[in-house]
Amino acid sequence: MDVFSFISVFGGLALFLYGMNVLSVSLEKMAGGKMELILRKMTSNRLMGLLLGAGVTAVIQSSSAVTVMLVGLVNSGIMQLSQAISVTMGSNIGTTITAWVLSLTGIDSANFWVNMAKPQNFSPIIAFIGIILIMAGKKQKHKDIGSLCLGFAVLMYGMTMMSDSVESLSEVPQFTGILTLFTNPILGVIVGMLFTAVIQSSSASVGVLQALSMTGSVTYATAIPIIMGQNIGTCVSALIASFGTTKNAKRVAVVHVLFNVIGTVICLSVWSAVNAVVDFAFVDDAVSPFAIAVIHSIFNIATTVMLFPFAKLLEKLVCRIIPDAKEQETKVLLDERLLTVPSFAVAKARDITSEMASLSKKAVKTAVGLLERYDDKTAQSVVEMENTLDNYEDTLGTYLVKISKKEVSEQDSKQISKLLHTISDFERIGDHASNILHTAKEMHDKKISFSKEAKEEIDTLTDAIFDILSITVKTFKNDDLSLAETVEPLEQVIDVLINEEKTRHVSRLTKGECTIELGFVLTDLLTNYERISDHCSNIAVAVIEAQKDMFDPHEYLQSVKTEQNGKFNEFYEGYLKKYSI
Fold it and tell me: Does the pLDDT at position 43 exceed 70?
């Protein structure tokens, strides 16, 4: 064993960890949209949470990433602590998948097809397919699949490189002596825990152990406590992520630690006690990669089966360890910890934008109500809603830019673009609600009001504004393209109504039926109505264009207005008839 062998070991480890990272990121990107759907279907059912945790972890190949994500989800209020506990337990089962894939490297057979099942034999083919997809693929989805293939190939090459490099270590007495020390269960647990804490991936540390096992020097007595310690070491990522979070978010990280520590203590105690009585003959035998995968799965499944029925007691225990604060905690709007899994970050940003959409609609309706009956308390609520919308826009804009710099799926990329194009429109609708509030206050302070005829016309126009707001909000929340196509015809009708109202106002003014002062008030109101409908149009166009993966609203609107297609005319005539003045 010379210096070059050590260099090869570290080189193999580097390729192994890099390949695992690429594989994990690629899997996450491909599952991005589906992850959002799974998240929305999350229920309080503990079994469903357990299955969700196992499934998501199996997909993104990282229990550390899942637990960090859970800290962010609980911190931002998407998930309750009780839900997160069951998902955490499930993640411990999902993370065992990697070890099973890596165990295939230990296959030894003369049969051609059996040998083809060895990752080091079929991974070059996968790598070749991956590079073709990356270089020749026209769609981002194809390139993502190519990255996944290359990540897997690099992972397996790194695994093979490590295994080949450490093969000669079996002949080094010092190496064998070191491994003998780890047969001490406590020491084995500590070593597994520390190594996993450093690389922050139990899947990766198990893979390294599988590579070492190919030397034939790693025994069952050495491997079992190390595997148990590896599950504790993977909790470090969640603990780090919990700094500066809410009490419940911190509890998620502590639950992860407690779950693995309790499982290790029980399983290690049972194993040591039974072995002391029975004295298993296989304890000093060399362990294989396949056996390590079996041990890893048995330990994690057994721990989950033991502790799952006591999830509520675990929740009470962690609440005693981290008691509720006397002071009220500040609600986190968008937790940056979710950026570790961008698809969930996009889902949360979309939820907040949906809240923003509903709030902008409510602000307009509340402000318009003040035209009829003004009171200071209601007026203050409009001011508060407008301030909230400003805060939403600033926070969302910054957050979305951060997400866009991450590796995201094509579907999530379209969502980000749509959100960036719409948040300013929702915020501006809030500004116009504030302007309408000022108009209502001016009318109240000056004790002026519209004539009966003018009021009836404005009420019709107001109904049209409320209608376009409702349609737009529904369009955005549901990504409803058919509904989105009805917004522009209504916007055109509103423009017609506003021009007609201005003409009628001039007529009343010349007849002395209206005052110049009321004319200024009416002009301000009509201007804000027109701007609100314009922003609704922009939002609808953004929803439509997001599906086409291109953002050129001017081109779309120009085509709609010039072609005057049958569907547009049908909606236009229907709205014109509905809102005639």
Answer: no
Query: Identity (one letter) of the amino acid at 109?
Result: S
Give the residue from 303, 206, 298, 225 showing the smallest Cα distance to 262.
303
Cα distance between residue 75 and residue 73, in whole Å: 5
Q: How many CA atoms within 13 Å lie on the side-chain side of 101?
A: 21
Domain boundaries, the chain: 3-321, 341-578
Contacts of 107 (CB under 8 A, 6+ apart): 114, 115, 117, 118
Phi and psi for 111 in degrees, rounded to 5? -70, 135
Mean pLDDT of the 382-394 span = 94
3-state helix, strand, coil in the chain (%, to 5): 85, 0, 15
CA–CA gap between residue 162 and residue 102 (Å, rounded): 12
Q: Is 8 helix (H, G, I), strand (E, B) or coil?
A: helix
CA dist., res. 529 & res. 495, Å (int): 9
Integer-rounded Cα Rg, in Å, for the chain is: 31
pLDDT of residue 174: 56
State yes or no: pLDDT of 469 exceeds 70: yes
CB 386 within 8 A of CB 434: yes
In the numeric block, which tokens belong to residue 388? 């909230």
User: Considering only CA atoms, which of 217, 186, 211, 191 is closest in space to residue 293?
Assistant: 211
> How far is 58 from 91, CA to CA, in rounded Å?
8
- Domain at 341-578: CATH code: 1.20.58.220
pLDDT tens across 533-563, in order?
A: 999 999 999 998 887 665 555 566 566 555 5
Angle at 123 between CA 122 and CA 127, to 5 degrees: 125
If we measure between CA atoms, which residue out of 240, 231, 238 comes closest to residue 202? 231
| Residue among 533, 63, 560 nearest 341 (CA) | 63
Helix (H, G, I), strand (E, B) or coil at 326: coil
pLDDT per residue over 97-143, tens digit each? 878 877 776 666 566 666 676 667 778 888 899 899 988 887 877 88
pLDDT at 178: 61
Measure the CA–CA gap between 90 and 220, rounded to whole angstroms.
Answer: 26
Kindly tell me if the per-residue pLDDT of 47 is higher than 60. Answer: yes
10 Å CB burial of residue 504 (0-12, 13-18, 19+) is: middle
- Give the number of other Cβ atoms within 10 Å of residue 335's Cβ: 24
Q: What's the chain's length in residues?
A: 581
pTM: 0.70
Select the more confidently predicted residue: 294 or 182. 294
pLDDT of residue 379: 94
Q: Between 46-60 and 3-30, two packed helices, what is the crossing angle to 10 degrees? A: 130
| Burial readout 150-183 (b: 16 or more C-beta within 10 A, e: otherwise) | bbbbbbbbbbbbbbbbbeebbeeeebeeebeebb
pLDDT at 264 over 70: yes
